[in-house]
Design goal:
The protein is built from seven helices and no strands. It is an all-alpha fold and 141 residues long.
Amino acid sequence: MFIVVVLGIGWAVGYVTAPSEWYANLNKPFFNPPGWLFAPVWSILYVLIAIAGWRVWNAGESTLKLLWIIQMVLNFLWSPAFFGIQMPALALVIILVLLVTIYAFIAKAWNRDRTSALLFLPYAAWVTFATLLNGSIVVLN
């Protein structure tokens, strides 16, 4: 169930806020990945996030549940801020808070549910990269 919900919301947010001509016209850093890469990467990450969420939910750890929920809300807010209302600076603030929340989840889960913490490591790496990309777009534009 977690996988269906997380993937479904992720795909819906991605569909509604798909990059437009506005994004195509932005100055981007040399390390900007090709557009086709985002959907498969996020699909894999959402599966990992969902599995971790399911594990945390079943374990009953309230702090981990809260961190998982907060990071999902922030994750789903980023695209509307960046692509929807076209405010990369606001999106940068959101993704920075998201990144802190992801690392807080990993740190808190490390001794309680190592598997969930490990499932979040690729997510942390990708969001770290996305934060650098978002910040670079803010600076370049």
